[in-house]
Design a protein that fits this description.
Number of domains: 2
Number of strands: 11
Radius of gyration: 24 Å
GO cellular component, one term: periplasmic space
Pfam family, one: NMT1_2
CATH class of the largest domain: Alpha Beta
Subcellular location: Cell inner membrane; Periplasm
Largest sheet: 6 strands, mixed
Strand content: 15-25%
Order of helices and strands: HEHHEHEHEEEHEHEHEHEHHHHEHH
Structural class: alpha/beta
CATH architecture of the largest domain: 3-Layer(aba) Sandwich
Helix content: 40-55%
Keywords: Cell inner membrane, Cell membrane, Membrane, Signal, Transport
Family: Belongs to the bacterial solute-binding protein SsuA/TauA family.
């Protein structure tokens, strides 16, 4: 009887181990073996050039393998893309540094920057008939930015602060407004605003279509042009579950960056083709040429500039307190790929 009980216990134990092993095997297979739908957020903008070129040429799809699928998700504003990251609706995203910072802070580190995409490309202009030679003359002016708390807004507020100015909501003399880039063009043409700090290609469009005057060009607005305008982010859960796919994505992102810089004329054609397809509006060639001259297509996330944006976000009240930024960047995979390709690694 005793032996019978031992035998039954042994069988139950073996069955338990077998079941655990079966489920464990399924879990492993689910992470490593089954087809993965990789949802990638991006904007129809030249600052997301790698996404546009890679989408057109199908290179990201090729990089992650035929068994998996790239699912491109189009956005027109950073906050909407951040919400999609929080909801698990996208896995990887091209996005501005301001929204990337907010995503990292609000998710408590569940969203990280894994590469740079574009540097510079912001320009500060005044409307026709107003020439600003001294930045202190911005006092009393109405200035537009695409969105409060975004890269251009933070840059503007630093410019104002450096010149002893601040916006009216904080007791200053400068009225800062937010408006969509297309609306900024109309406002400037009508004379409803005096100046604007915008990303390309809108800066070049304001110069061409509204006869705007340059107050500060891209190299003068911040850090001599060494500031990030777009980065690549990932949900850390997706990175943990699919590191090989993220590596394949970054590998192609780096290759696409190299392709654009070595084949700029062709890359501009592809970018314009994609923007036309996505927005039903093309960019004039002269505007496109001028815009690309103010951009740097890069893998470098310009960490110092992002950390400066963090400080500005705290100072201006967009972040409640100074966050712990030690895990904001996760560029291990990027540096591995850069090293393998004989390119300078990011410190």
């Amino acid at each position: 009887m005793k032996n019978s009980k031992v035998f039954k216990f042994s069988i139950a134990l073996l069955l338990g181990i077998s079941i655990i092993g079966t489920f464990s095997g399924c879990s492993s297979k689910e992470t490593k073996g089954e087809a993965v739908n990789v949802r990638v957020g991006y904007f129809p903008n030249i600052t997301h050039a790698q996404a546009l070129v890679g989408r057109d040429q199908g290179t990201f799809q090729k990089a992650i393998g035929a068994a998996n699928k790239i699912d491109w998700k189009l956005f027109n504003a950073g906050p909407a893309e951040v919400e999609a990251l929080f909801a698990g609706a996208i896995d990887i995203g091209y996005i501005g540094p301001g929204p990337a910072i907010n995503a990292y802070v609000k998710s408590k580190g569940d969203v990280q920057i894994i590469s740079g995409a574009t540097d510079a490309g912001a320009i500060f202009v005044s409307r026709k008939g107003i020439v600003i030679k001294n930045l202190k003359d911005l006092s009393g002016k109405k200035i537009a930015v695409p969105q409060f708390g975004n890269t251009q807004d933070l840059t503007l507020r630093k410019i104002l602060s450096d010149n002893g100015l601040k916006d009216k909501t904080k007791g200053g003399t400068v009225e800062v407004r937010q408006a969509a880039n297309s609306d900024i063009l109309a406002l400037l043409q009508k004379g409803d605003i005096d100046a604007a700090l915008v990303p390309e290609p809108w800066g070049s469009r304001l110069i061409k279509e509204a006869s705007a005057n340059i107050i500060l060009d891209y190299k003068d607005v911040f850090r001599e042009g060494k500031y990030t305008t777009a980065v690549v982010v990932v949900r850390t859960e997706f990175l943990k579950n699919h590191p090989q796919i993220v590596e394949a994505f970054i590998r192609n992102h780096v290759a696409t960056t190299e392709y654009i810089n070595k084949n700029l004329a062709k890359a501009k054609e592809i970018v314009n083709k994609q923007i036309t397809e996505l927005t039903k509006k093309s960019i004039a060639n002269d505007v496109l040429d001028a815009a690309f001259k103010r951009l740097t297509i890069t893998n470098n996330p310009e960490k110092d500039s992002v950390l400066d944006f963090v400080k500005s976000s705290v100072k201006e009240g967009f972040l409640k307190s100074e966050p712990d930024t030690k895990d904001l960047f996760n560029i291990t995979i990027l540096n591995k790929v850069l090293k393998e390709n004989g390119l300078a690694q990011i410190k």
